[in-house]
Amino acid sequence: MKSDARCKSGLNSRRAFLQLGAGGSAALASGILGESFFAVAARGASLPRGPFPKDAVIIDANENPLGPCSVARAAIVEITSDSGRYSFWLTEDLAKRFAAQEGLKPEYVRAFPGSGEPLHFAVLAFTSPTRSYVTADPGYEAGMHAAKISGARVLKTPLTVSYGHDVKAMIAAAPDAGLFYVCTPNNPTGTLTPHGDIEYLVERKPKGSIVLVDEAYIHFSDATPALDLVKADKDVVVLRTFSKIYGMAGLRCGLAIGRPDLIEKLSSFSGWNSLPVTAVAAALTSLDDTLVVAERKRINAAIRSDTFAWLDSKGYSYVPSVSNCFMLDAKRPAKEIIAAMAARNVFIGRAWPAWPTHVRITVGTKSEMERFQAAYQEVMQSKASDAARQPAESRWSHLDGRRVSNTLLEHS
To answer: Which tens digits make up the pLDDT trace of 276-292?
Structure first.
């Protein structure tokens, strides 16, 4: 009982500490922000705190509804009794295992709790007030928030007509670039930047700059990975995660892959710590399972294809994707659509300022997408005033004690 009391006291103290000072602005300025943060913050008045309602369709955070594969779940159960030990060597074993499978030297790979941390630390390592951060628009927001900490100028370039990163525009935008961020497949559009375009960027970027290739969603597509550029010792760091196709978002496990000198610079900001043994055990067994990636890629592609066929049949607009998410153009203010869908117990993803009528949809299970279709058709056939029945939107969002201004999130 005393132990429980101490735990509760520590948790309350941590939350109270996070709420001190300048409130939401301070939280944004000091923390590592990931997909879970942006997803929760965007829920706003529709679901500001607490768990989802019963039987909710949750397709707002690019999670994998399948969870860890069966062998990974078994590994978690098996190692749980040893969770009182750090077992630091398992973290090193994960880096070695991935390196061996991909034909890399172990010193080229570093394990992290997800890919959000190495993204954050890469921005701190390679950008500054004199070295800009360059990204796509719309694109994943986390690096832009890290750039606020490093003091770097943030430059956002529109996607190409085929929804890839416009690498020529990115180069032209920042002769002083320190880091070019390329997420492929892109978050939020689920679209690819061709490998040849990434090669073009690497060869023509400003001297001393780094290309950070985020391959969180690479397994859902047939895209050529950028690991060959790492093997060629180019100025490239590749990010991988076990959160997406491996279904381990809640376990937190990822990798940064690059030349040892680049990994060392990144690590100078992160330090080193062992990962949760449950996450590492699940990751190791997932890497060794030769069927999991292909099977889950097939499942996702089939459900995504069925969803696109339905959207086509109804004349709804969307951006074709090769990932587990896509952008849906409602032709109406995105916030209105998000609120109306939430009222029907279907929670869809956020909007990006560059595309104010688009919302991001995560590909869920077959039954979830069928419920999404029914709810979306009802919303689109309803009057625009439907959303007026929703609660007034709060000026603030909350996440584990952080009170964050929605204005800050909207202008990221």
So the answer is: 999 999 999 999 999 99
100 is a domain residue: yes
CB 307 within 8 A of CB 118: no
Q: At residue 185, what are phi and psi to the nearest 5 degrees?
A: -55, 145
261/148 same-domain check:
yes
Give 105-136 pLDDT, tens digit per residue.
999 999 999 999 999 999 999 999 999 999 99
Same domain assignment for residues 42 and 107? no
**Considering the entire predicted model, what is its pTM?**
0.86
Does 240 share its domain with 149?
yes
Q: Domain residues for 348?
A: 38-62+293-410
| Residue-level length of the chain | 412
| DSSP letters spanning 225-259 | PSHHHHHTT-SEEEEEESSSTT--TTT--EEEEE-
> From CA 316, how far away is CA 377, in angstroms rounded?
9
Pick from 313, 335, 317: which is nearest to 326 by CA?
317
Whether the CA torsion 336, 340, 342, 348 is positive or negative: it is negative
The number of helices, as runs of H, and strands, as runs of E, in the chain is: 16, 14
